[in-house]
Amino acid sequence: MEAKADHVLLTFVAGGISTCCAKTSTAPLERLKILFQAKNQHYKDMGVVRALRTIYHKEGALGYYRGNGALMLRVFPYGALQFVSYEQYKKIISPICDNYALSKLVSGSLAGITACSFTYPLDVVRSRLAFQVADEQIYCGVCHVIRQIINTEGGFPALYRGYGATTLAMIPAVGFGFFAYESFKDCILAMNGSLTKVNTEGQTVLTPVGGLACGALAGASSQTVAYPLDVVRRRMQLAGAVSDGYKYSSCINTFVTVYMEDGVRKGLYRGLSINYLRVVPQVAVMFSVYELTKQFLSQETNARSE
């Protein structure tokens, strides 16, 4: 029982740390993606490089990390819960599902939904803070955003605006992401090449480069499928902060509105190039740091018990 508790704690800490590292490493591109997805009037006609330069000139280096504090408040528990629940769902689903791919996909999807359900309001808060620009500030902090949304947009349920689209996106984004990562990981471990090493316990594990490679491939493949739902989610989250927010009242309505007004490339996949630049290194860092942190904490725990 104690060993099981230690394993859960290790997974919780490793998941939280790895997700924080991953999100912080790509925070500037995350903010730019939000500005592009919701068509902020100051950035809607700019390319990536010009927009990044404009943020720096308008708001300085810290402008790249606007809303990142709220993101970290959400990301640590989100990442921790996601990895812990994934391990637990795997133990439940694998014995009753013989299909390897399906069991990993379902476990990952449920893990993403579980973590999202507990931390979603902070994702809405982060989106609002990241969307505003220096000379047009509406909100002055996390608590202010929460109060404003509750008081002016329909109470506590408004903090879950876009939750439906998010949970739908969890299936391809998180579910397929975990499945892809584990598939690539199993393949690399089976090859037993330069991307693997033997740890102090005699187990074959991924090297840091191996973890980065598996994570990058998993992130690119999962986000391609999930991106339109991410656009829908952002539009709904920001509905209360834009003049035409009344058009984004439900997942289906938002999806149709974006498609009819802007089409596929400039609407449902608007900002996808930024997303690749953001997600591929982000998922790579997340899984790589997760593997390294878990290996390190496991070694420390074993050393203390001897």
Automatic annotation (TrEMBL):
<keyword id="KW-0677">Repeat</keyword>
<protein>
    <recommendedName>
        <fullName>Mitochondrial carrier protein</fullName>
    </recommendedName>
</protein>
<dbReference type="InterPro" id="IPR002167">
    <property type="entry name" value="GDC-like"/>
</dbReference>
<keyword id="KW-0999">Mitochondrion inner membrane</keyword>
<dbReference type="GO" id="GO:0005743">
    <property type="term" value="C:mitochondrial inner membrane"/>
</dbReference>
<keyword id="KW-0813">Transport</keyword>
<dbReference type="InterPro" id="IPR002067">
    <property type="entry name" value="MCP"/>
</dbReference>
<dbReference type="GO" id="GO:0055085">
    <property type="term" value="P:transmembrane transport"/>
</dbReference>
<dbReference type="InterPro" id="IPR018108">
    <property type="entry name" value="MCP_transmembrane"/>
</dbReference>
<comment type="similarity">
    <text>Belongs to the mitochondrial carrier (TC 2.A.29) family.</text>
</comment>
<keyword id="KW-0812">Transmembrane</keyword>
<dbReference type="InterPro" id="IPR023395">
    <property type="entry name" value="MCP_dom_sf"/>
</dbReference>
<dbReference type="Pfam" id="PF00153">
    <property type="entry name" value="Mito_carr"/>
</dbReference>
<feature type="repeat" description="Solcar">
    <location>
        <begin position="206"/>
        <end position="296"/>
    </location>
</feature>
<keyword id="KW-0472">Membrane</keyword>
<feature type="repeat" description="Solcar">
    <location>
        <begin position="99"/>
        <end position="187"/>
    </location>
</feature>
<feature type="repeat" description="Solcar">
    <location>
        <begin position="6"/>
        <end position="92"/>
    </location>
</feature>
<keyword id="KW-0496">Mitochondrion</keyword>
